[in-house]
């Protein structure tokens, strides 16, 4: 039986609220499909570096997990995210800014 999933816009709203409660600035820079769009989260650490995360299936457990899509200089991460967005126009992109590298993804279900 497939894992039940929230509509993307509901998950994004909850995630942005959770980030706000932790004083982590976050912005939706690409609004994808409200119901089933995939999400990339880009974290800029404000030192010229960034990391982007996307959801993937863990083939060993059958669960979905957040995995690193790209990491390094921010301009390289931006280029990788742009390439993914060109490939998938339904993709959401959320950008965070946090010097401590907090993203709260491991605390989010769905």
Tell me the layout of helices and strands.
Layout: H1 8-21, E1 26-30, E2 39-44, E3 49-57, E4 64-73, H2 74-87, E5 92-97
Parallel strand pairs: 2-5
Antiparallel strand pairs: 1-5, 2-3, 3-4
Organism: Alloyangia mangrovi
Protein name: DUF1491 family protein
The domain count comes to 1
Largest sheet: 5 strands, mixed
Query: Which descriptor suits the 3D outline?
Result: globular
Number of helices: 2
- Compute the number of strand runs: 5
Rounded Rg: 14 Å
The assembly state of the depicted protein chains is single chain
Measure the end-to-end span.
16 Å
- Helices and strands, in order, run as HEEEEHE
Tell me what the CATH architecture is: 3-Layer(aba) Sandwich
- What is the fold-level CATH name, i.e. the topology? hypothetical protein tt1805
Query: Order of strands across the widest beta sheet?
Result: 1-5-2-3-4
**Low-confidence segments:** none
Work out the helicity level: 25-40%
Describe the fold and architecture:
Helices cover 25% and strands 33% of the residues. The chain is of the alpha+beta class. It has a single domain, classed as hypothetical protein tt1805 (3-Layer(aba) Sandwich), CATH 3.40.1530. A hairpin with a 6-residue loop joins β3 and β4. The protein is globular, with a radius of gyration of 14 Å. InterPro entries: DUF1491. It holds the Pfam family DUF1491. This is DUF1491 family protein. It comes from Alloyangia mangrovi.
């Amino acid at each position: 039986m497939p894992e039940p999933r929230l509509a993307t816009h509901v998950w994004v709203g909850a995630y942005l609220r959770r980030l706000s409660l932790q004083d982590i600035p976050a912005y939706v820079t690409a609004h994808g499909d409200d119901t089933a769009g995939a999400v990339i989260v880009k974290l800029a650490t404000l030192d010229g570096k960034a990391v982007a995360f996307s959801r993937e299936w863990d083939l060993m457990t059958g669960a979905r997990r957040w995995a690193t899509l790209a990491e390094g200089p921010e301009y390289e991460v931006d280029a990788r995210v742009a390439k993914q967005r060109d490939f998938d126009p339904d993709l959401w992109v959320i950008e965070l800014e946090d010097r401590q590298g907090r993203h709260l993804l491991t605390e989010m279900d769905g």
